[in-house]
Amino acid sequence: MSRIAFFADLMGTLFERHALGAPAPSRTPVEELCAALLSAPGEVSGVRLARDILSHYRAMGADERADFFRHLATELDLDADRVIAAATRYRDGGGPSALADLCREAEPRRQELLRRMNQAPGATEELVRMRLDLLRLLPEAPELAAIDADFQHLFSSWFNRGFLVLRHIDWRTPANILEKIIEYEAVHAINDWDDLQRRLRPSDRRCFAFFHPAMPEEPLIFVEVALCKGTPGSVQALLAEGRTPLAAADCDTAVFYSISNCQEGLRGISFGNSLIKQVVEELRRDLPALRRFVTLSPVPGLSRWLAGIAPDRPEAARLLAAGAAADPETMAPEVQTLRRLTAEYLLQARRPDGLPVDPVARFHLGNGALLHEIHALADVSANGFRQSCSAMVNYLYDLSQVETNTEGFLTGKVVAASKKVQSLLAQGSTTGRKS
Amino acid sequence: MSRIAFFADLMGTLFERHALGAPAPSRTPVEELCAALLSAPGEVSGVRLARDILSHYRAMGADERADFFRHLATELDLDADRVIAAATRYRDGGGPSALADLCREAEPRRQELLRRMNQAPGATEELVRMRLDLLRLLPEAPELAAIDADFQHLFSSWFNRGFLVLRHIDWRTPANILEKIIEYEAVHAINDWDDLQRRLRPSDRRCFAFFHPAMPEEPLIFVEVALCKGTPGSVQALLAEGRTPLAAADCDTAVFYSISNCQEGLRGISFGNSLIKQVVEELRRDLPALRRFVTLSPVPGLSRWLAGIAPDRPEAARLLAAGAAADPETMAPEVQTLRRLTAEYLLQARRPDGLPVDPVARFHLGNGALLHEIHALADVSANGFRQSCSAMVNYLYDLSQVETNTEGFLTGKVVAASKKVQSLLAQGSTTGRKS
Amino acid sequence: MSRIAFFADLMGTLFERHALGAPAPSRTPVEELCAALLSAPGEVSGVRLARDILSHYRAMGADERADFFRHLATELDLDADRVIAAATRYRDGGGPSALADLCREAEPRRQELLRRMNQAPGATEELVRMRLDLLRLLPEAPELAAIDADFQHLFSSWFNRGFLVLRHIDWRTPANILEKIIEYEAVHAINDWDDLQRRLRPSDRRCFAFFHPAMPEEPLIFVEVALCKGTPGSVQALLAEGRTPLAAADCDTAVFYSISNCQEGLRGISFGNSLIKQVVEELRRDLPALRRFVTLSPVPGLSRWLAGIAPDRPEAARLLAAGAAADPETMAPEVQTLRRLTAEYLLQARRPDGLPVDPVARFHLGNGALLHEIHALADVSANGFRQSCSAMVNYLYDLSQVETNTEGFLTGKVVAASKKVQSLLAQGSTTGRKS
Amino acid sequence: MSRIAFFADLMGTLFERHALGAPAPSRTPVEELCAALLSAPGEVSGVRLARDILSHYRAMGADERADFFRHLATELDLDADRVIAAATRYRDGGGPSALADLCREAEPRRQELLRRMNQAPGATEELVRMRLDLLRLLPEAPELAAIDADFQHLFSSWFNRGFLVLRHIDWRTPANILEKIIEYEAVHAINDWDDLQRRLRPSDRRCFAFFHPAMPEEPLIFVEVALCKGTPGSVQALLAEGRTPLAAADCDTAVFYSISNCQEGLRGISFGNSLIKQVVEELRRDLPALRRFVTLSPVPGLSRWLAGIAPDRPEAARLLAAGAAADPETMAPEVQTLRRLTAEYLLQARRPDGLPVDPVARFHLGNGALLHEIHALADVSANGFRQSCSAMVNYLYDLSQVETNTEGFLTGKVVAASKKVQSLLAQGSTTGRKS
């Protein structure tokens, strides 16, 4: 591309004069461009250089990308000695200007590079994909983790909650967005456009997503909602093909039955909590008859935990055997045992840090939800039987309680649970267990 | 407000348990809220706390605000000793995790606080205003400069070129935006709605502004453009009331006659260069007949410079005297002298760092523009006579030259100028000056 | 214009072959174009001919326009003999095809011409203006009234209620729409943009307009609304400059204090009734606390009526004298008399057809409103004193009563009035009058 | 429904007083509502009555709908005697007021009813469906044709070209619109969403539709366009799954390969001509490299015509036999014969009125297109072989010629054809035929 040639040329002259030190003879064109972008005064020529770097990057193979990341990791790092020197000056009374020096020195130069690359049109999306490449490299190249910290730092700032936009997703949404909903659905797969339509079009269904203004065609996270009378105990019933939709105004319960993160490249930047709470507020405003906001959530770690205790607990072994049959009739006699052991799992199985073993539980309880109800035969798909012997759970979002619950969960490791769930456990303790 | 009472309460319990150290008895409610927001895990309850802090801030008087900033400066600073320790660990081979520690330690905690405050709806705009309060305090409280560095760092990231949206401003623009154009115009004041209409409605006028998605009703910067045949040499002619508009398609020259920054709270975050270049591209696409993109710019430092040299240079003294009359006829005989001295001023009057004394010149030349033409009797308003004896200047934006020009200006301190302007100087050297 | 030359040419060939009869030698170019447009098969070349006719029309002076209308009136009329023949065939059992012939014959050909002219972009607006030209000609050229019936027939169909769009007008509305609000306000003049802002921006003000999709920048009619606590009795109080706005949610009364038709060219196509009712529904949905929807209306015919009865009724003469002073203090002692006579005027002064003399009363009562309250010193402007001695009136819109009221008004000539207003009259009968 | 009860009640009182004559005892509720709507003064209560009539109509079965239409046909007709009387008065010098009477008398009262029904929200769409019901009834109830004339008259006015909006249809279009594109495609069926995506998403595909503002989610007609280099001769090649899209800017030819009317209820209101011409203008503006605008059209009547001449023309019989094999290899030797006979069919096979037998030819030639090229093996689907032995045709739209062509076609019955097509025929005359 002649534009790159032009820049290669330009660089020649430019770098001799600039205080960048002699360019290493081994520098690749993209490394030259990065150096130029970092040395460009202010915003001058930034957009053009940024665009060129991104177009170089797109054309790279896997090995070149790894090299590029290594370049960022080593050549565009901070200099610890200069940080120490600056920090010492500041500690010794250097005042604001010493602090400014320190802050500048303590930021790896690649951070500024990424910020400048973001000036190009469409760059934000490309940088999110670039980080995804990096995440996939990390297992074999753990030394690149440092770069990931920079991505994460920048993305936290750019994808700040205050910049996100909540949008309704429905059957009037542009098709290019909808196809991404199909693609990104992570909990209960959407098979095709007809399936999608069943989730978006009926009067008792809702879907909401967060978007960022710089990536207007890429949802960041979305939640699917079913409006119901009463709390449903089965996801298959919820998604059944033939069902008759309810009038939204008649419903008293909103069920969050699927929450999917869309951008792997934004891993670690969490949107779910904000999304749920904003959707609760939105639904409450539109549909004043709604009284209850619950999830219908999987219990992904249950079977694994049952397998762990099965040697000592015959009822766990029985459950696993029934689950393996993947057949509701086989499970039917064990329904009560399943509910009881699920309660035990969620309330008592803890990680070393004292928080529950179950990741979905950690997410919702950390958000301030309460463990509201446990259902057997609630997910009778092959996967449902496999991961949790068909059990599913409702977490309840009561906005007036979420702060207290969060506080209790994070500091006291308290799992907020309804009386009903607690009594399951009690029942278990007295009748079902012999330990 | 009872919500604050609730939090005060919450804080009680919360802070005892949290590792925040004992809350100083003297902490104000807003300081408590800040501590709570910083200690809130992830996004939990952030929006609510952020909103409360901002509403507290809004209610504060000037003294309380100064206290609040002092709190940010002292209590929410970084700890230089911890930075040194972390930097030492990293230097000594601590790897990515040591780097992560270092980056965290080296960021003043108030930065994270500001990021979290930004989660509240409308917060970005309020934070920009908050920084404006700070900027106004700085002259008397220079120790707060450290905070300003944090604001500037965050704003650079948030108001990244990649996030800005260019919008046409015309007579179809909502009135609430237009009234801000009237308010923010900084170069040639807009007197009222009729005056505004004369700048926006005619077929040969354009206006463009940058907006940020989180502040959709607040322009960040805007530029007013006149489409002309040939390069105009008088702003009064450009803005005359009775003139007959040209058909846009017939024009060959676009004149940027006014560029105004709108948000004082974003001082130091520069948008002008990007705006001009994007507007050039936009206009070129819409109106292929356009051949020339120039400014019609003031020369704000000219009279001051003339006063400086007047003791040695009788022609400078003559010009100042004619300027003081603020009357075109008086100035008429000096027109050639005025043009020549303006050329000398712009090409030769330099700051210690070698760049031109004139701030407008520094801006456009730094953007890569070329000094194209100098006009006498070009701004015959009282202000025009006062600041530059009525002289104005065209800077030419030729996108194919801007990078070279910028490079030459910044590294070689070269002022790119047309032959015509250079010859003015030559003429001056030989005939007009005796030194 | 060469395109017209082209058509003139085309016409030559075209008309010889077409069954249009020999073109009269005196036909003007625009008449030729009209003939061509009418003879064009289907939509073929219609847009182009329509555009040409409209551009011809725009260029015409007043006399040419009158000639053009005369051409429509005489040459493009229906043929009564053919109508009679077709009607006879249909009466005598000709069936659907005879009916189709009849309908075609009974429609003046200019109607189809106008329909075809409407194919050109922007034509609807131009046809509305064309009718306005016609309306202004009618007083001197009553024979053209026949054309006006065709315009009215078409406009009734095109501007059918089902095609209109209700839009909020506020301070975020584009300036080109707002300047039309200033221009078209017919009841209480809007002096400038500041005055406009006072009517649109405060939290307790609303404005709504009907638009037609083919004229998206031209309001058809708009209503200005003040939200109040209680029913106001003075328009000056409502529009006062210094007042403190109320929170909309606290208001219990919506006051329609100004309704303006914008398009004189749509005279006779009435939108006001629909507008008021749709705005009532809109406001009720948004602001459930609203309990009362009233107008604050002028009484334009009062002074004239008082003058008529003054010879026999000394109190009427007194009122007129006090009104002539145009001074609240002079009127103060007569307040009760003024209210009583206003009640008498509105309830008892009738036209030969039995409906009230007052045109504003006819409008609102015909819409189903009820005469709710009468205020003295309610419009203390010069105009207010002149037309109604400062009296104004509230008409109440209670949607559950409007149909009954309309029915009663139109068939039984009943003026629906509150007890309070009726008692004014009673009071008058017994105490204030001696007849 | 109680609202209807309310009206039934209201009607009781209302009709006694109104000059509607005694209501026939047999009137159904919806007939009462129609009478009420027609008698309602101005717009009063119209919306409500209109809504009720439409909701009644929706609930009707087929027989009731037929009764409803019969009611419109007989009870709400015009009165021929009154028309004759009015026409006579006008002929005898009655002037504008006599003309107004005549116009009113000569319009069947159901027309005003339909206009008033259109005031209800969403009514336009329902009236279009109502006419579709009527069209389906017509074959068995030809006496209802009179009503259809009224529908057609109103729809011509409402769906005037000037009110239609052209919209791009692409992969960003809302899904609820796209599913209608799938449903309404009438030429080359769209199998599913993937197929749709292949027609909308590639850089060398376009789709445009007309919409009416009162039916914003219902396309009226749409055209699918392929951008090509050169004129394509096969629809299968155009729609092939694996093909590599071209850059739009490189294409020189736009091919209209499918035009579908969407609303059967708008039969007889023609949009296709306007659509094609406006799309040509739109494409020309966006893609200046486009030089040629052609269709790739079916020849639906070809096989039928071949069958008619086969007894006398052995080559026609041969073609039909090859076509019946529905196999390209079998057809290959006959390619030249097929092209020749297609030319003969399109140029020479005429209806009694002198216009071509082929309906697609009549449409495009009537629009002013020219028969540009004939392709064998151009549609090798089963249907393609069946209806036209695989032949397809390009009609060329040259906007500078369309008016002349239309004129020649409609008045002189001239089929505009390229030299190439004409030479096919000549070749046929001399070598292929023996007559």
From TrEMBL, chains A, B, C, D:
Q: Which PANTHER family match?
A: MALONYL-COA DECARBOXYLASE, MITOCHONDRIAL, PTHR28641
Q: Which residues form the Malonyl-CoA decarboxylase C-terminal domain?
A: 162-398
What is the protein named? Malonyl-CoA decarboxylase
From which lineage does this chain's organism come? Bacteria, Pseudomonadati, Pseudomonadota, Alphaproteobacteria, Rhodobacterales
The record, for InterPro entries, names:
Malonyl_CoA_deC (IPR038917), Malonyl_CoA_deC_C (IPR007956), Malonyl_CoA_deC_C_sf (IPR042303), MCD_N (IPR035372), MCD_N_sf (IPR038351)
Q: Name one GO molecular function term.
A: malonyl-CoA decarboxylase activity
In its UniProt record, which GO terms are filed under biological process? fatty acid biosynthetic process
Q: Which organism is it from?
A: Cereibacter azotoformans
The record ties this protein, via Pfam families, to: MCD, MCD_N
The Malonyl-CoA decarboxylase N-terminal domain covers which part of the protein? 79-159
